[in-house]
Fold each of these.
Amino acid sequence: MTGKVVTITSGKGGVGKTTTTANLGVALARLGQKVALIDADIGLRNLDIVLGLENRIVYDLVDVVEGRAKLRAALIKHKSFPELYLLPAAQTRDKTAVSPQDMIQLCNQLRPEFDFILIDCPAGIERGFRNAVAPADEVLIITNPEVSAVRDADRIIGLLEAEHKGPGRLILNRVKGDMIRKGEMLSPDDVTDILGIKIVGIVPEDENVVPSSNSGIPITLNNSSRAGKAFHNIARRLMGERVPFMSLEDSGSFFKRLSRMFSGGGG
């Protein structure tokens, strides 16, 4: 087994990046994949809260890098998903405590034991960004269909290409079909025309996402949630399956064209 390292990033606003990382990790684990999640947001860790693991942290990423703890001791095994592990970020240090080479070495240790290593990249484009993308085999860029968020995503794509990690694939978050129809929100067509990269997932707006994250129960566990279904389908695509995009009401011909591109089950 040689695990695939996937870094999940966004612009300065975050736009649901940590929630996406948690949900994709849970979805992959439910599909039988062994998954390690790494919170690379040193000083501002949140991935543990979204997963409901904040009370189980003993060691963190910096403890491993600086030799105070073995990697195995720092990994937190999720009680509900035995194939899902978290390596939390340090809260009392800053991003200079870890280097890109440290992250590469860390992921190389994890690759033989895991199918996927997902890295939650800190918001922004500074040292933390370089740390998180250094070991990546693939980068997923999260953006909302808003002009400012898309501009941030465009900047991220340019940086990835400079690091020879591009162009990445896109997850479009918090999509509202009715607003697209009224011309009040950028359509997926608009976003892909601007950014020029492929979409791997379209997550519809869902009022249950925030309370789900606050409770430490990822929305992908909610079988009636369209957002949860979208995250599940993104996980399947990361595994190489051809999965059609869910049609979103009033979202126009873009989704119909996407659906024709894929065969098999539903965003």
Amino acid sequence: MTSATNEGGALQRILEDEIEPFLQRLRAARYTNETLQRKRTITKEFAQWAQQRLIVADNIDRNTAAEFVARLPETTKTRAALERATVRLFLKHLYEEGRLRCITPKETESVCANYLRRYEEYLRKDRGLAENSVHVYVPFVRDFLSSQGIKAGSLSATFETLQIRSFLITQTKGRSDEYTRLLAVSLRSFLRFLFFAGETDHDVSGSVPTVRKYRMSRPPSFLSGEQTELVLAATDRSTSTGRRDYAVLLLLARLGLRAGEIVSLELDDIQWRSGEIVIRGKGRLVDHLPLVCDVGEALAAYIHDDRGASSSRRVFLRTWAPRSGLTGPAAIGHIVRKALVRAGVQRSGRGAAHLFRHGLATNMIRQGASIAEIAEVLRHRSQNTTAIYSHVSFEALRMVAQPWPATGGIR
């Protein structure tokens, strides 16, 4: 019997021994019995496949799940997705339990992937950018790195002004002004990171041309007060999911929170005794907002009756297992879009969650609030950002508008 066969058999024993502990962890995360049975079948097949292929522990990495799924070319897309997700989850369990050695990124990733990973860490930890911003910047930088054919130790020679501008010109042909602006901002940020990290001798971020952004001339799309109340009233509060969604919608409508702020809200951020809610906004800013009555009641009802036990400290959890926090701002947008459809409210323009935030500001300015007051409620760092809401006060503008001069006198 060869050493490879011995190692393959040892791996199979490890995999088989960990199937039940793995399923027990999923059971604690509230996976259904039907789902657990399917995952048990898949993990057993994976253990047998690994033994047949004489795979050893040191050869298991992030590509193993894809190789396992590819063993049966005729597998349906649904089955393939289930197998891939199950094996990846199983391997994660094995790594966390110390049954397999987790290969570090430095051992497997390419030079480009290494820089991209470090750049993401820089954006999150050093710059304190919101996840939405990270998701915007990183794809632009990934495309840039892929186009440059970077090799280790050649960064200084790679990032030259003409090459950077050539990439910009190529990528922005036929693209919108906003796409061009975001690409330029992302590249400038990445090149600045490389200089701060000591990877380049000179800061070449200045070679990325600035794309002028003209201040919007049209008022932002928003929900009127009547539409907001209609959406809230149409939310089905007879189910646990409906009560969760109702609490989310109230945070948007009453406090004007951003989607990302709701996703990151934790149990300790709700200060019941003082009647405040702690908001962790953009740029690591922390604000305290009043916990208004209907918002507090909706949060209390959801947390007490519907949220259930979870190791996650996030306030809002997924409806289906694993019972962890919502995946990101897109989840809030999905909740809002469903609520708008139920209420029969048509939205105009892009975005969904921000319609409530814009509606809150619009209602305030129509009731006589100043730009400074709205900026304080929305927690804008600059009142220039808040100035866009001055366009929506059409009634006030009519009161100060002068008659249009015409031939033969004023009409």
